[in-house]
Amino acid sequence: MWRLSKEKAIGQKEIHSVENHLQFLNDVLTKQYQVKVVLDEESVIGMIAYNEEEVSQLYIDPAYQGLGIGQMLLKEAKNNSSGTLSLYTFEVNTLAQQFYEKNGFRIMARGTENEENLPDIRYEWERE
Question: In this protein, which residues make up the domain named N-acetyltransferase (predicted)?
Answer without folding.
Answer: 1-128
